[in-house]
Specification:
The complex is a heterodimer of chains A (about 250) and B (about 230).
Chain A (H helix, E strand, L loop, with lengths): L2 E7 L8 E7 L8 H14 L22 E2 L2 E2 L20 E6 L8 E3 L2 E2 L2 H10 L19 H11 L6 H5 L6 H13 L7 H14 L10 H5 L7 H20 L1
Parallel strand pairs in A: 1-5
Antiparallel strand pairs in A: 1-2, 3-4, 3-5, 6-7
Helix pairs in contact in A: 2-6, 3-5, 5-6, 5-8, 6-8
Chain B lengths: L7 H26 L7 H12 L3 H31 L18 H4 L1 H20 L9 E4 L2 E4 L1 H8 L3 H28 L7 H30 L4
Antiparallel strand pairs in B: 1-2
Helix pairs in contact in B: 1-3, 1-7, 1-8, 5-7, 7-8
Classes of the chains: A alpha+beta (about 250), B mainly alpha (about 230).
Chain lengths: ~250, ~230
């Protein structure tokens, strides 16, 4: 099969980018979308042109490294998967497809389809951790956690931090990512010591990173490769407001 | 802690809380307005007179309502300006993910439908509440007491087809605003429930339709039946 691609090319962060059209032929419908880009890049390299830069690592949909926007939708047309788990059988022969990087002030373009997501790292550094005693690892089952609680925490912990929520949000809000991290630690006993500080610090860092605010469009949940629900955003709000209320009463 | 919340979560909470107050108001306001359709002018005038006789209590409610209205707008504007800052470069192709998304034409036009209401509300209050009163001859007698004939004012007001058309149009905008606003306000307050949130989302559509139809029926009804009244 053949695909007509319109890809955002940008040489470096300060350069002004533009769309460049490419046609890739002799593709198999069983190829992944990234394998198709690999084929394109080999052709470009043979011709002496710069290959299209894009991020990828595990190509199993679990690491959160890959991700760009296909025809206006982060990670492309299939729900609940990363772009590396997208296959050409989901496209028509001869289809025209536009590829753009995740667009947000907090995610500056590094090159082509690669963006800098270190804002997420700084949010995690602000509070997305737990305290543990040094020494040997504790016994795996020494803390009992009810099944429903473990499941609830895992629903949030499934977040791989790919940034598609920010890319898809009409406001470029990071609320789904931040709330997933807050929820997963707030639900587990290990997350309790920093629970109160965590939500205030992570929300403050999110706001400092120039992400937008959440308008409850729910577009983030729709593109999330791990189907993280916006119920986590509601949980983050409850955690946050509870802390504000406690601080207010302590005055 | 300053008066104006700086965090994104607090701003949305304020927006949701003031939205809730305004939702409660439009329900009560519609219930009161439906007295226009009873066929007896005394019903609306008695209700209006009772409200007016609340005195300081009414003033307190009015100031509170105005404050909610202003805070709702200001908090919504900050969300809009955050958005402009957060995505300076826009996508060349805009797409909808579908699936679990609740992005609709309503959710994407909240600012614009809200601005329509912002222009409408002062016009509405000035022309009716602060419109011609007893001094201008709008007087009727209720149980031997002379009170303002608000009923006649409203009926006369909606004999003008321009007023009817504008009111109907604005109420459609109100419906669009509520379609996203109703469930979004609950989500902004931090309330999410796996079974109730889908109900609120669907209920939001019904609520928006009920409010829009409930309000726009009144001017149309009065215009069609005005001559008989």
């Amino acid at each position: 099969m053949t695909l007509h691609l319109r890809i955002w090319r940008q040489a470096h962060a300060q350069a002004s980018g533009r769309f460049v059209s490419y046609t890739v032929k002799d593709l198999s419908p069983d190829m992944s979308f990234l394998e198709m880009l690999d084929v394109l890049n080999e052709e470009l390299t043979k011709k002496g042109e710069a290959p299209v830069e894009f991020d990828s690592d595990c190509r199993e949909g679990i690491c959160g490294t890959c991700g760009f926007v296909i025809d206006g939708v982060a990670h492309g047309p299939r729900r609940g998967r990363t772009v590396c788990q997208l296959y050409l059988r989901d496209f028509r022969d001869g289809q025209s497809v536009t590829l753009e990087p995740f667009r947000a002030k907090a995610f500056p373009v590094i090159q082509d389809l690669v963006v800098d997501r270190s804002a997420f790292e700084r949010i995690i550094a602000a509070g997305g951790y737990i305290s543990v005693d040094t020494g040997s690892a504790p016994d795996a089952n020494s803390i009992l956690i009810p099944k429903e609680v473990a499941e609830g925490a895992f629903d949030a912990a499934a977040c791989i931090g790919c940034g598609a929520c920010v890319a898809a949000c009409p406001n470029a809000s990071a609320s789904l990512f931040v709330s997933a991290k807050i929820a997963h630690l707030a639900l587990l006993p290990q997350g309790q010591p920093e629970r109160h500080r965590r939500v205030l610090k992570m929300v403050a860092q999110m706001d400092r990173e120039n992400f937008g605010n959440c308008s409850n469009h729910g577009e983030c949940e729709a593109v999330c490769p791990k189907n993280i629900s916006i119920k986590q955003i509601a949980l983050m709000r409850r955690e946050y407001l509870t802390e504000i209320w406690k601080n207010f009463r302590a005055l | 802690m300053t008066f104006w919340p700086r965090s994104s979560v607090a701003k949305k909470f304020l927006n949701g809380l003031t939205g809730l107050g305004l939702v409660l108001f439009i329900i009560i306001h519609l219930a009161g307005n439906l007295l226009l359709l009873t066929g007896n002018p005394d019903d609306l005038n008695r209700y209006a007179h009772k409200l007016e006789s609340l005195g300081p209590l009414l003033l307190f409610a009015q100031i509170g309502l105005a404050l909610f209205f202003i805070l709702h707008i200001l908090s919504a504007l900050t969300v809009y300006f955050d958005r402009l800052r957060a995505r300076p470069a826009r996508y060349a192709v805009s797409g909808d993910a579908g699936g679990a998304s609740r992005k609709t034409i309503s959710s994407e036009t909240m600012l614009y439908t809200g601005l329509v209401l912002l222009v409408f509300v002062p016009w509405h209050v000035i022309s009716l509440k602060f419109g011609p009163g007893m001094a201008q001859g709008y007087v009727t007698e209720l149980d031997g007491v002379a009170v303002r004939d608000l009923y006649r004012l409203v009926v006369e007001y909606f004999q003008n087809p321009v007023h009817v058309i504008l009111y109907v149009a604005v109420m459609l905008f109100l419906g669009f605003h509520l379609r996203h606003g109703f469930w979004s306000m609950i989500q902004s307050l931090g309330a999410y429930h796996p079974r109730l949130t889908p109900l609120w989302y669907t209920g939001g559509l019904l609520f928006a339709a009920a409010m829009a139809v409930g309000y726009l029926v009144i001017p149309i009804w009065i215009y069609m039946n005005g001559a008989k009244i």
